[in-house]
Amino acid sequence: MSSSIRWPSCFGSFAASDAGRYMELELKPISREAIPGALERVERYRLLGEPWQAESICEDILRIDARNQDALRGLLLALTDQFGETVQTARALEAAAQLESEYDRAYYEGIVHERAGQAHMRRGIQESAYKAYEYFRRAMDLFERAEQVRQSGNDDALLRWNTCARMLMRHRELRPRPKEVLEPVMGE
User: Fold this and answer.
1) What are the residue ranges spanned by the domains of the chain?
2) Contact at 8 Å (CB) between 103 and 149?
3) Cα torsion through 97, 103, 107, 112, rounded to 10
4) CB of 135 within 8 A of CB of 122?
5) Fewest Cβ atoms nearer than 10 Å: which of 14, 23, 30, 49?
C-alpha cells in the first residue's frame, strides 16, 4: 500500500521558481509487528503535548490495519487535543463513526463534542459561548446514550456527563442562543 503526502514548498529550501509547489514524499509503511509499540508511542506523545505526532502514528497504524480500534480512538483523541483557535470536528467524528461498539461510538463522539465545547468556551466571546453550550448539550446527550449501553461497573460516561453539567452550571455565560423574534414591518 503506497501513500504519498504533499508538503508546501515552505518546508524546505527551494528555488524561487518552486514557490507554491508541493513536494511528493512516499510514506514508509510500518510492520504489523510494530503496531503495539506504536500504540504506546501514541499515548506518550499525547502526554508530552505533541498530539500531531500521535496523530501521525495513528495514521501509520491505520494504513496497515484500517479497523484498529485503539488507533481510531488514539486518532480521535489526538485530533481533539489540537482543538484551539480552530475547531474542526469532522475527522474526529469520522474516526468515532468507525468504532465497532455502540458504546464507543456514543462515548467518543461525546468526547469530540465536549472538547469542542471547551475550545469554544476558552474563546471568551458571546457567539462562542452559544456554540460551547450547544456542544456541551450534544455531548451530554451522547454520554446518556453511552450510559444506556455501558458494561456494568463502567461509569465513564456518567463522569463525563457530570463534567459537562458542572461546566454549564459554573459558567452562566454558556447558554442557549436566544430565539430571534421577528417583528412585523408596518407599511406606511
Assistant:
1) 1-30, 31-82, 90-176
2) yes
3) 0
4) no
5) 49
Residue 117 identity (one-letter amino acid): G
- DSSP-assigned states of every residue in 45-66: HHHTT-HHHHHHHHHHHHHH-T
Q: What gap in Å lies between CA 167 and CA 162, rounded to an integer? A: 9
Residue 75: phi and psi, rounded to 5, are -60, -50
- Find where cell 489526538 sits: 78
Residues 45 and 74 sit within 8 Å (Cβ to Cβ)? no
With contact defined as beta carbons under 8 Å apart, do 64 and 41 qualify?
Answer: no
CA 182 to CA 188: how far, in whole Å?
A: 18
Asked whether the beta carbons of 129 and 174 are under 8 A apart, the reply is yes
Query: Can you give the pTM of this predicted structure?
Result: 0.82
To which residue does cell 447558554 refer? 175
- Exposure of 161 in the CB half-sphere (CA atoms within 13 A): 15
What is the mean pLDDT for each group of 10 consecutive residues in the chain (188 residues)? 47 50 89 98 97 98 98 98 90 97 98 96 87 97 98 97 97 88 65
